[in-house]
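Deliverable D4.2, example record:
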Amino acid sequence: MHKVGVLALQGASRRHVEALTALGAHAVEVRTPQDLSGIDGLVLPGGESTTISKLIDLSGLFEPIAERLADGMPAFGTCAGMILLAADVLDGRPDQRSFGTLDISVRRNAFGRQVDSFEADLAVDGLRGGDFPAVFIRAPAIERVGAGVEVLAAVDQRPVLCRQGPVLAAAFHPELSDDLRLHQLFLED
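Output generated by the structure prediction step:
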């Protein structure tokens, strides 16, 4: 991927742009449907999932992103971004929409509130160079994994990193570490 969009409506978009740029990608912030033009992939960052969902609708981005994802555009969702990609949000608001691109069921804030934030060194399947330093902040958890989903890492036997086709999703914030290997994995897929 050469040109990668980072959804920049709310949440931790700047650090993703910096990580992608450091890896040689042309990273652009996505705020309008026109910003999707010419991108090869999309990062959906952390933040507050219901707020991001509402802003996606208000900005007119839901249908264009949904169409691009349905056509096979690679995506990388982190924390709230994983919730936005999930087929089922078990405890979302009734008006909250997700793209349903990833055959998983998630529970928001499953690891606890802000005060329960933590870091964990994750053994990630297929990732060379040792464990990945993951930062969990009000993190969601995957409660169901569909047949076509590959679980790449877990915490206490709960999946926290998975992939289905060109879609990668993490319950944590890889952009908050200096380790760029997950962003590299996304760019290589």
